[in-house]
């Protein structure tokens, strides 16, 4: 799709503004990164860390390993890698070990047999981690806001409570972006989280602490949330699996900030994990009674599904072009699927996707059914009592006196110029995209779409490319379930991956496809595993064709 001259002018203008802004940013940015030169994650030596949560639970039930051994193995790995990645921001190791000992005692005393335990407590004795934006009893719940540094949760968020009720043991809470609204997990309370595949790169956001701790082998499963890609982006950058469920399936309660306006319809809570087989049982647990609305027990025959591949958004001038290695990985995956399953994957261009950012922005700022507009970002930054003044905050930031990150200040500044009345054209694009995708996917379709146009960027780089999250954000607005699936490593050793999108309530289809692709492409790779890199970058498919 060709860009108009006006669009090209705006792109050039915006790029110049952002470049000038970033040069100034680099001069003033607080030096929170430290040197990571030459530092690499130590290899995983403990075999228990290479086992899925489902398998760990089975081994614990069968007394082949104790919960204490598993929890201790994860604590050791966290202590080994966390000083490098800064992903876990508060632990509860002592309590977790006590709970694990109780689990081992319960299993010793259980007379009903393994099946009873599996049915009642499917994740009994398995450790997990939680994004700090969720309430976990006794743990901080600041969402990276300095003014909330003393907030400690008295109860558990509903999906966290459901995982605990299934027998899982929380190890602690992980870092996120300020107010869970940025592509990089960085805030003035806990600092910056690093990517285990390259410490000089971002772990993604907003559930970046989860992405990094799971990707580095220091947690096996975790809880994330996603209103624009906050599960899928960190899963992609850290080479793990994640699932944004159909909107409304998992309870979003107990997280800060609460969604307002129309946002509750776009916010999704979901699982993040290293092994695809953990996605479905986690979703079943986290969805509670809503799991019945999904066909999670259905047998999926992939040969009977209809597959579609969309290689890029059609060339939005605001976004980066898709990295050739990602285009190539998607092509390779399609070829494999066709050859192995005998299916025909239809390659599509969907012109409305070019407006993904505008659609996301318009819907996120729309008033709710009660006519009330959403809480502004400046109000959220003020902690709910008073709003911050973005220009004043920017001034303070340059003097090193602001309690906020540049990303948060930037979002509050942009909000000042946002129109409260979305354009009719954009609303029409949204309606026609929704209709087209609902019809296309139906109850047997899966669509492949890049997770992000770039591989994990260097720290702070998203300040240059803030609109790239639109590749994920559009599916929050459409309410569709999306599974994030890793597809090996790039030539630089960075994770490759893809979004698998299904029709509403058809979560089982994208989950089944992820399981299949894990077998074909190897799923999560240990950071530093150079055997599985993509060895050609020669594909130069244009994004605007
Ligand atoms: C300092 C530059 C700021 C420029 C801001 C440009 C506007 C971009 C708008 C929104 C970016 C939101 C990123 C959302 C990332 C995922 C959030 C989530 N919780 O799912």
Automatic annotation (TrEMBL):
GO terms for molecular function: hydrolase activity. PANTHER family: FATTY-ACID AMIDE HYDROLASE, FATTY-ACID AMIDE HYDROLASE 2. Keywords: Hydrolase. The keyword Hydrolase applies. Signal peptide: none annotated. Residues 70-509 form the Amidase domain. The gene is faah2a. This is Fatty-acid amide hydrolase 2-A. One of its GO terms (cellular component) is endomembrane system. Pfam families: Amidase (PF01425). The active site is at 131 (charge relay system), 206 (charge relay system), 230 (acyl-ester intermediate). Belongs to the amidase family. InterPro entries: Amidase_CS, Amidase_dom, AS_sf, FAAH2. It comes from Ictalurus punctatus (Channel catfish). It comes from the Eukaryota.
């Amino acid at each position: 799709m060709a860009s108009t001259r006006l669009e090209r002018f705006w792109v050039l203008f915006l790029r110049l503004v952002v470049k000038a802004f970033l040069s100034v940013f680099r001069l003033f940015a607080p030096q929170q990164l430290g040197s990571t030169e030459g530092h690499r994650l130590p290899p995983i030596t403990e075999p228990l860390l290479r086992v899925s949560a489902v398998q760990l639970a089975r081994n614990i039930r069968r007394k082949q390993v104790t919960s204490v051994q598993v929890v201790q193995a994860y604590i050791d790995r966290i202590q080994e890698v966390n000083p490098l990645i800064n992903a876990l921001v508060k632990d509860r190791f002592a309590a977790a070990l006590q709970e694990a000992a109780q689990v081992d005692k319960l299993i010793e005393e259980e007379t009903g047999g393994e099946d009873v335990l599996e049915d009642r407590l499917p994740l009994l004795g398995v450790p997990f981690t939680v994004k700090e934006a969720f309430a976990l009893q006794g743990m901080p719940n600041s969402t990276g806001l300095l003014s909330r540094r003393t907030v400690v949760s008295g109860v558990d968020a509903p999906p966290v409570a459901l995982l605990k009720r299934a027998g899982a043991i929380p190890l602690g809470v992980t870092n996120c972006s300020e107010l869970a609204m940025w592509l990089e997990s960085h805030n003035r309370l806990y600092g910056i989280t690093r990517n285990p595949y390259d410490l000089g790169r971002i772990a993604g956001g907003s559930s970046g602490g989860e992405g990094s701790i799971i990707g580095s082998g220091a947690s096996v499963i975790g809880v994330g949330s996603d209103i624009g890609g906050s599960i899928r982006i960190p899963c992609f950058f850290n080479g793990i699996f994640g699932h944004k469920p159909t909107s409304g399936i998992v309870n979003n309660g107990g997280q800060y900030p609460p969604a307002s306006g129309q946002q509750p319809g776009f916010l999704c809570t979901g699982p993040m994990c290293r092994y695809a087989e953990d996605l479905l049982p986690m979703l079943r647990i986290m969805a509670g009674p809503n799991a019945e609305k999904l066909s999670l027990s259905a047998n999926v025959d992939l040969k009977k599904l209809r597959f579609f591949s969309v290689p890029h958004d059609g060339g939005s001038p605001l976004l980066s072009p898709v990295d050739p290695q990602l285009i190539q990985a998607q092509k390779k995956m399609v070829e494999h699927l066709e050859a192995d399953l005998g299916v025909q994957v239809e390659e599509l261009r969907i012109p409305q996707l070019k407006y993904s950012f505008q659609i996301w922005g318009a819907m996120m700022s729309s008033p709710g059914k009660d006519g009330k507009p959403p809480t502004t970002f400046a109000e959220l930054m003020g902690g709910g009592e008073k709003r911050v003044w973005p220009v004043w905050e920017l001034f303070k930031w340059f003097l090193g006196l602001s309690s906020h990150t540049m990303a948060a200040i930037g979002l509050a500044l942009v909000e000042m110029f946002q129109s409260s009345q979305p354009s009719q054209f954009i609303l029409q694009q949204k309606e026609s995209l929704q209709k087209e995708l609902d019809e296309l996917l139906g109850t047997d379709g899966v669509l492949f779409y890049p997770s992000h146009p770039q591989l994990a960027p260097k720290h702070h780089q998203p300040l240059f490319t803030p609109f790239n999250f639109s590749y994920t954000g559009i599916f929050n607005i459409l309410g569709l379930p999306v599974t994030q699936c890793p597809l090996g490593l790039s030539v630089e050793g960075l994770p490759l991956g893809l979004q698998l999108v299904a029709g509403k309530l058809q979560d089982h289809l994208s989950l089944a496809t992820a399981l299949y692709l894990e077998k074909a492409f190897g799923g999560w790779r240990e950071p530093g595993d150079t055997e599985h890199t993509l060895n050609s970058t020669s594909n130069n498919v244009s994004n605007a064709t």
